[in-house]
Design a protein that fits this description.
Layout lengths: L2 H23 L8 H17 L23 E3 L8 E3 L2 H14 L7 E7 L2 E8 L2 E7 L5 E3 L2 H4 L21 E8 L2 H13 L8 H9 L4 H6 L3 E7 L8 H11 L7 E4 L2 H12 L9 E8 L2 H7 L1 E2 L2 E2 L2 E5 L4 E13 L5 E12 L2 E7 L3 H7 L6 E7 L3 E7 L24 E2 L8 E2 L5 H11 L12 H9 L14 H4 L7 H12 L3 E3 H7 L7 H11 L2 H6 L2 H5 L6 H11 L2 H12 L3 E3 L11 E5 L7 H10 L3 E3 L8 E4 L5 H9 L2 E4 H9 L1
Parallel strand pairs: 2-13, 21-22, 23-24, 23-25, 25-26
Antiparallel strand pairs: 1-6, 3-9, 3-10, 4-5, 4-7, 7-8, 10-13, 11-12, 14-15, 14-17, 15-16, 17-18, 19-20
Helix pairs in contact: 1-2, 16-17
Length: about 675
């Protein structure tokens, strides 16, 4: 075979294998046997080995390729991967429509409905028509590069189809869901049984775990599937219905279980239909998603917090089960809160085995009359958090025992107090081991210092050996301190020390959140950071000054004031400072005061979120929608419809270089 003949044969084999892959994995049709398809793949692989110069990224043989990765690099999403607000009743759906109707009163709303697959959200980027990057959702803003693992999923195209009127050579970003069918889940668990290994809990967790394996061959062995529903790049789509059609034309697998709905009544009918039929689906779903169909209305409605106003997840009724309460134990939180936890006879609920459920507080136990030894109904609220619904009193034998909140902390023996008017009892000993443990876990969490590799088991070992007493001690550790710990080698010890050292500086908002002040979540921390600018000003602020911060009420202000009034906490901050731990100051300036910016398209020098943060730090306002009040529209690469709207409204449009120059002036 000559080189020319080999090249022609390889191209024909690629086209044929991809054709049958698309039929089988996307259209659910089959024209040749699995054995015949395997034979074609084998011939292709052999030819590519003999003529490596003709091996291309879109070859079917590249779905499992390369050595296992050493780790995942971080990927900043061009636009956030949003979380949806949940609804659990028809009244909540009507209330949702009522809220958005008030924002666009003159518009007739129509919707697009689709099932909410219990899967794993991903983002794909195509460059020049080829799959260039695949990433996880992460925290919505930064995910992990799992491209090699996603390439193993046969329903994901390595190369986009050519579509008339669409430039597939441009950068195209799409989003969807990776999932595992119940049939495949059962197959994997049968293999676990044969290997005398424990069962996996549910398909969703197994799918997510498969994508986060460092060896792509493991992901390939799990036979994952995908559906795509969101076209991020503007390819001329006007509605969500358009997005699904374009995605299908490009070669993506889209759900057949979708419906255009002219009104909310149709959405509710769709929900009722699938409530009784979801068990017949080959994969797990936990609800449906209702989306305002018009993309223009979507942009006008915008977001509230971290969730879009234009979409809502209407959850199916939670699956319930009955089980016995073996005991009620106490858990201690980072603020000293004593939380009663029901220890249950293990039971399968909504696809996973449940053995513990929070009882919230003593009043809740009394209200529901839950006793040790009771038979109870449990459910996973929103199919996520296990909770006890009620006790079945008719099944009592008389041997059941009442629960009493302890007067002393079960961990440290400290006094338990319950402030007047509060439902939660707390350990008064701030030096309690359990409180310190939870505070350290909180400190290293993703929204705080994000120190990877420091899991709960490692923290427990460090505390047990008295290597640390608080979070400040983490920054005094050396690799030699870690090597004697269980399962630690020289390399793994060095990696954790490097991770700790590289996270000594965070933003002021993250630093405030990491302190673990009661009632101060990540959003409140950001408000405090923006208002005061540094920690010293917060420390010296009066309750009245704290209340001046938007979103900070009397209770939160008092908690912050009291926290900084505790000498132990001030000593803790000093220890962090002495260890070289701190925050990066972003002093607010006023060069952009009175100006409103809208960014559209991709910026090469920074992510959109970074640009918006700079605008706010310089006194300007960053908006998500173009209006007559917009000062500038910053047009990056592949600008969307905001660019056209700016032209229509006569808003000044600047490119990225002009924007950067404006920041420097």
């Amino acid at each position: 075979m000559t080189k020319t003949e080999a090249k022609e044969r390889i191209e024909k084999l690629k086209d044929l294998v991809n054709y049958h892959r698309y039929l089988y994995h996307v259209l659910d049709r089959q024209e040749i046997s699995d054995a015949a398809l395997d034979s074609l793949k084998h011939e292709l692989s052999k030819l590519e080995s003999e003529y490596p110069e003709y091996l291309t990224p879109d070859s079917p043989t590249q779905r499992v390729a390369g050595k296992p990765l050493s780790g995942f690099k971080k990927v900043r999403h061009g636009s956030p991967m949003l979380s949806l607000q949940d609804a659990f009743a028809e009244e909540e759906m009507k209330a949702w429509e009522g809220r958005i109707t008030k924002l666009v009163p003159s518009e007739k709303l129509d919707y697009f409905a689709e099932l909410k697959i219990d899967g794993f959200a991903i983002s794909l980027v195509y460059e020049d028509g080829f799959l260039a990057e695949g990433s996880t959702r992460g925290d919505g803003y930064i995910g992990e590069d799992v491209t090699q693992n996603l390439k193993t999923i046969e329903s994901i195209p390595l190369k986009l189809n050519n579509v008339s009127g669409i430039n597939t050579k441009q950068r195209i970003e799409v989003r969807g869901e990776v999932f595992m069918s119940e049939q495949e889940f059962e197959r994997v668990n049968k293999e676990q049984t044969l290997k005398n290994l424990p069962f996996y809990a549910n398909p969703r967790n197994l799918a997510a775990g498969s994508i986060r394996q460092l060896d792509p061959k493991i992901a390939a062995s799990r036979r994952l599937d995908s559906y795509f529903y969101n076209l991020v790049t503007d390819l001329g789509q006007k509605t969500h219905e358009d997005e699904h059609k374009i995605l299908a034309d490009l070669g993506f697998k889209t759900s057949p279980h979708v419906k255009y709905c002219p009104d909310l009544l149709c959405v509710l009918d769709y929900y009722d239909y699938w409530t009784t039929r979801k068990g017949k689906l080959p994969f797990e779903v936990d609800g449906m998603v209702a989306i305002v169909n018009s993309l223009e209305l979507e942009r006008r409605l915008g977001m509230v917090g971290k969730a879009p106003r234009w979409a809502v997840a209407y959850k199916f009724p939670a699956e319930q089960a009955t089980t016995g309460v073996l005991d009620i134990q106490i858990g201690i939180g980072r603020t000293g809160a004593l939380t009663p936890v029901a220890i249950l006879e293990p039971v399968l609920v909504a696809g996973s085995t449940v053995s513990r459920a929070t009882l919230h507080n003593e009043d809740e136990i009394k209200r529901k009359d839950i006793r040790i030894g009771d038979t109870v109904i449990i459910q996973k609220a929103g199919d996520v958090i296990p909770e006890v619904v009620e006790s079945l009193k008719n099944l009592r034998t008389g041997k059941e025992k009442y629960f009493k909140m302890p007067k002393e902390c079960p961990i440290c023996g400290g006094k338990v107090i319950r402030p007047e008017g509060e439902a939660v009892a707390r350990c008064a000993n701030t030096a309690c081991f359990a409180i310190r443990r939870e505070q350290i876990i909180h400190f290293v969490s993703r929204d705080a210092f994000d120190i990877q590799g420091l899991g709960e088991k490692i923290i427990d070992q460090l505390l047990a050996r008295d290597l640390i007493t608080d979070s400040a001690d983490l920054f005094k550790l050396k690799a030699g301190d870690l090597q004697p710990l269980e399962r630690f080698a020289e390399k793994s010890a060095s990696n954790i020390i490097e991770s700790i050292e590289s996270h000594k500086k965070v933003t002021l908002a993250k630093f405030i959140f990491a302190l673990g002040i009661r009632y101060v979540g990540i959003q409140t921390a950001a408000l405090l950071a923006d208002y005061f600018g540094n920690l010293e000003k917060i420390k010296d602020a009066s309750i009245e000054e704290l209340e001046n911060v938007e979103g900070v009420g009397k209770k939160v202000a008092a908690s912050i004031y009291n926290w900084f009034g505790d000498p132990n906490n001030l000593r803790y901050i000093k220890e962090l400072k002495d260890a070289g731990v701190g925050y990066e100051l972003h002093e607010k300036s006023y060069e952009l005061e009175g100006m409103t910016f809208v960014i559209t398209g991709s910026l090469s020098s920074m992510a959109r979120e970074e640009a918006e943060e700079i605008i706010r730090n310089m006194g300007g306002k960053a908006s998500s929608s173009v209006s007559k009040n917009t000062s500038y529209v910053v047009a990056g690469e592949n600008p969307g419809s905001k660019h056209k709207k700016a032209i229509d409204l006569g808003i000044k449009i600047i490119n990225e270089n002009e924007f950067l120059k404006l920041l420097e002036d």
